[in-house]
Amino acid sequence: MLLDIQNMSVAYGKAVALENISMHIAEGEFVAVLGPNGAGKSTLLKAISRSQPSTGTLNFRGESLQTVPSHAVVGKGICHCPEGRRLFPDLTVRKNLMLGAYLRNNAAEIQADLDMVHGLFPILQERGAQTVSTLSGGQQQMVAIGRALMGKPSLLLLDEPSVGIAHRLKMEIFGAIKRIQQGGTAILMAEQDAQSALRIADRVYVLEHGHVGREGTSAELASDDYIRQAYLGVA
Ligand SMILES: Nc1ncnc2c1ncn2[C@@H]1O[C@H](COP(=O)(O)OP(=O)(O)OP(=O)(O)O)[C@@H](O)[C@H]1O
Ligand SMILES: [Mg+2]
To answer: What pTM was estimated for this model as a whole?
Structure first.
C-alpha cells in the first residue's frame, strides 16, 4: 500500500470539512476524487501534504505522516500541485520548474527530470526563458504540474488540473497526466470534469459534504445510475 487513510477528519475551527474518511492508493495507481464545490477535495490533498492538520491514520508506505512537517513531505515522495497553481509569475518558466527540485542535489538526475518534463510539455522548453505571467492559463498549469514532477514524486497530488482551461489544452494535459502514471508515478487527482476523470483514472472516490459517497473502479462508477445522473448529466 502506498497511501492508507483511515478515519481522517479535518475541521476549520468549528466547520468540519472531512469527517471520518477512509481511502487508499496502491503503488502506481491513478485515483480520482470527484465531488461538487466545497465537498472537501482540496482539503483532502492539503491534509495528505500536511499543509492542513488532520486527525486519524495517514500512512505513506507504512509510515505515519502525522508527525512529518509539511516542508518534509516532498522528501518522502509526495508532491502537491495545488489549486490555483501558486506559481511565481515574475520568474521564468525554467526557474519555476527548478524550484520543484529544491531538495535535490544530483544535477544529472535533475537534468534528466527536466528533460522528461520538456518531453511531456514541449512548449515549456520553447518558453523556458519567458516569465510565467506571459503564459496562457493552460500553459501555466503545465508549469505547475512540471514543477511538482521536479520533486520526483512517487505520489503526485493534482488539484483540478483542468479547471478553466480550453478543451484542446485540457486534453493535452490529461494525456500527459496519464503518461506520468505510465512512468510509474501514482496519482491522486481532484477533478470536477467527471467524464474525463472516469476515462483516465483506475479508481474513483466521490466526496460529498466531507464524506465518501461512492467508490469503485472507473468502469463501475461510469455505469452507476446515481453517478451518471449527478456527475455525467445522463438522464
Ligand atoms: N481555510 C479555510 N477556512 C475555513 N473553511 C474552509 C477553508 N478552506 C476550506 N474551507 C471549507 O471547507 C469545505 C471544503 O472545502 P474544499 O476547498 O476542500 O472543497 P473542494 O471540494 O476543494 O471545493 P472546490 O471544488 O470548490 O475547489 C468548504 O465548506 C470550505 O468552505
Ligand atoms: Mg478545491
So the answer is: 0.97
